[in-house]
């Protein structure tokens, strides 16, 4: 299996609605992209200073599955429509598990 | 459930041995800290420019479990002995799932 984790920081001006729509769009991806074997994610609880705002944790069978996700229209639409407008920072990693 | 995710970047001078020892120390935590209900983690595969080097994904029953982890001697020793010497960056989040 391969894991893909992205932690996101929203801009100061991002509205609650924009954040909710971005987070919902993430949760809708598995239904659109069959290579996503598992997904979980959520918004920061505010327990740690300087934490990121949202986490998305994906599981793929292998790197080919991850590449199919990267190239998929639904992923590209998520990035263009929901992330770019309100993204301030992003931490990412892919690893075998 | 509550998830705690930390993505770490190692310093340029970190040796492979130091990295391996830090990553092994993470994998040894669940045996020492019963509040950790699940753990997975791994080293970056080098697929994405600017990715973090290591990810640790913890699951706790609730915030009390997370606090017990934060205060536990084994966690404190991991930070002092294995992370501080080679840590260049850290992204963190806690969220309900």
Per CATH, the architecture of chain A is 2-Layer Sandwich
Shape of chain A: globular
Termini of chain A, distance in Å?
Answer: 5 Å
The stretches of 5 or more residues of chain A where confidence is low (pLDDT under 50) are none
Output the structural class of chain A.
alpha+beta
The ordered string of helix (H) and strand (E) elements of chain A is EHEEHHE
Report the radius of gyration of chain A as a whole number of Å.
13 Å
Tally of distinct domains of chain A: 1
| Biggest β-sheet description of chain A | 4 strands, antiparallel
Instruction: Name the chain pair whose interface involves the most residues.
Output: A-B, 28 and 28 residues
Q: Quaternary status of these chains?
A: homodimer
InterPro entries (chains A, B): Dabb, Dimeric_a/b-barrel
Organism (chains A, B): Actinocorallia libanotica
Domain Stress-response A/B barrel (chains A, B): 2-95
Protein name (chains A, B): Stress-response A/B barrel domain-containing protein
Topology:
Two copies of one chain form a homodimer.
Chain A: E1 2-10, H1 16-32, E2 38-43, E3 54-60, H2 63-71, H3 73-83, E4 87-96
Antiparallel strand pairs in A: 1-3, 1-4, 2-3
Helix pairs in contact in A: 1-3
């Amino acid at each position: 299996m391969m894991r893909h984790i992205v932690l996101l920081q929203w801009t100061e001006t991002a509205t609650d609605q924009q954040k909710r729509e971005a987070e919902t769009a993430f949760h809708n991806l598995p239904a659109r992209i069959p290579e996503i074997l598992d997904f979980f994610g959520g918004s920061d609880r505010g327990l740690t200073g300087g934490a990121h705002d949202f986490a998305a944790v994906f599981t793929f069978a292998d790197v080919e599955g991850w590449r199919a996700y990267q190239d998929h229209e639904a992923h590209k639409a998520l990035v263009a429509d929901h992330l770019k407008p309100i993204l301030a920072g992003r931490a990412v990693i892919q690893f075998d598990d």
